[in-house]
Design goal:
With 425 residues, this protein is α+β, with helices and mostly antiparallel strands. The chain folds into three domains: 162 residues, Beta-Lactamase (2-Layer Sandwich); 46 residues; 156 residues, Reverse transcriptase/Diguanylate cyclase domain (Alpha-Beta Plaits). The chain contains eleven helices and 13 strands. The strands form four sheets. A five-stranded mixed beta sheet has the order 8-9-7-12-13, sandwiched between helices. A four-stranded antiparallel beta sheet has the order 4-3-6-5. The radius of gyration is 56 Å and the shape is rod-shaped. The chain starts with a strand and ends in a 16-residue tail after the last strand.
């Protein structure tokens, strides 16, 4: 684990599993190889000692005659003939008086000669000393020192075998770690990816795929179940948020947008119109004699009238037009885009005409009412929402003064004479 500033760089699971498998495999291969090598060395040591004893006995039989006749050249010849073919480093023949009759020594000058000598002295028995008998009488003795050549060869082959086994174990460990990576790390990586998407992107529709290992599969299923619950909660919260947003921006009685929503849309439309040099129209609508309806028939009937009025207004508009209830019996309509002033006049006429039919109430009775409409244009009658509202409001009161149930275009020179000179709603 390394520290880079304040950030901690952690090893991946794949690297941990790979290094763990490799370490275990190398340790196991090393222990097994060393154990087998030691056992082999011990077995070879016993075999070498036994073989050296047999060589010594063979030499005693062969040099018996030369010792009896005290023939040193013959003893040297026989000793050299046998010792040179066997694992012998040094051989000596003595008579009964302790005089040396023959001596043979292997002259190894190779790279491994010192190592062979050390192995022989460390692993083989002390120089073998056997009597030379003639007719059951001792006539001399021999001393034999073994050579460590076979031991060295075995140790070198053992080391090579250990290295080969280590390499094979490392390859097998890497293969197994990759398989284990597929069985363990891939499901965990999928789980981490889904969790990351859920936390960062609020994407609760993704799911963890099935895993081959039972515990990881159970973990994935539990996580998927948790995602199911989160998805349900997210859908519920989105629905509630949408409901609350609608309630905050719409009139609860008529379902139309409220004043705040309408003013926000109007301001955006004015900015777009100014940027694109377009025009738009604002209609201000007021129900005629609505106070008398409330006083005569009650507020429940008044609510029915407002709902019917809102429905009839909405039915006369184009797809992109907007109608809102400003409060009480006042409504506003935003006409955008507006290609010609006549389009606004035609829609105002349609709204006024739609109110000529009586309103059928829930109890089956009918009631007749009307709307007075004021029409203001951008940019002719105002450059902001306040001035357009004032112009349309003044035009609506002019319509009331002239004749209720009609529409009136804004007249800038008469903005000052509005509600104070107008008729009662």
């Amino acid at each position: 684990m390394k520290l880079t500033g304040k950030r901690v760089v952690r090893p991946t699971l794949r690297s941990v599993l790979g290094s763990g498998h490799l370490s275990v495999a190398l340790l196991a291969a090393g222990l097994v190889g060393i154990s087998l090598t030691l056992l082999g060395v011990l077995a070879l040591r016993a075999y070498a000692n036994q073989n050296l004893d047999l060589i010594a006995r063979s030499i005693t039989y062969t040099v018996e005659a030369a010792v009896v006749f005290d023939d040193s050249p013959a003893a040297n010849e026989v000793l050299a003939l046998i010792a040179a073919r066997e694992e012998v480093a040094d051989a000596k023949v003595f008579n009964n008086d302790g005089e040396q009759l023959a001596h043979w020594q292997r002259n190894d000058t190779g790279l491994f000669a010192p190592l062979q000598a050390h192995l022989a002295s460390a692993l083989l028995a002390e120089p073998i000393n056997l009597p030379i008998l003639h007719q059951q009488q001792q006539v001399g003795h021999i001393e034999l020192v073994g050579q460590g050549g076979s031991l060295l060869r075995f140790l070198l082959s053992g080391v090579a075998g250990v290295l080969l086994c280590t390499l094979l174990s490392a390859a097998v460990a890497l293969y197994l770690s990759r398989r284990l990576f597929g069985d363990i790390v891939r499901p965990l990586r999928s789980l981490a990816s889904v969790a990351h998407a859920a936390r960062r992107e609020r994407s609760f529709d993704r799911r963890v795929p099935q895993a081959r290992i039972a515990e990881l599969n159970e973990l994935g299923n539990d996580f998927n179940a948790l995602l199911d619950e989160l998805e349900v909660w997210q859908s519920h919260l989105e629905s509630e948020n949408a409901t609350l947003a609608h309630q905050a921006s719409h009139d609860s009685l008529t379902g139309l947008p409220n004043r705040a929503f309408f003013e926000g849309r109007l301001n955006r439309s004015l900015r777009n119109a100014a940027r694109q040099q377009d025009q738009l129209a604002l209609l201000f609508l007021d129900s005629d004699h609505f106070k008398q309806v409330n006083d005569t028939y009650g507020h429940a009937v008044g609510d029915e009238v407002l709902i019917n009025v809102a429905s009839r207004i909405r039915a006369q508009l184009r797809e992109h037009d907007l109608v809102a209830r400003l409060g009480g019996d006042e409504f506003a309509v935003l006409l955008t885009p507006l290609h010609a002033r006549e389009d606004a006049q035609r829609i105002a006429e349609k709204i006024v005409a739609s109110m000529k039919l009586p309103i059928t109430l829930d109890d089956g009775s009918t009631l007749k009412t009307s709307l007075s409409v004021g029409v203001a244009y951008y940019p002719d009658d105002g450059h902001d929402s306040a001035s357009l509202f004032n112009a349309a409001d003044a035009a609506m009161y002019q319509a009331k003064r002239k004749r209720r149930g009609h529409w009136q275009m804004a007249q800038p020179e008469r903005f000052a004479t509005n509600k104070s000179e107008g008729a009662e709603p």
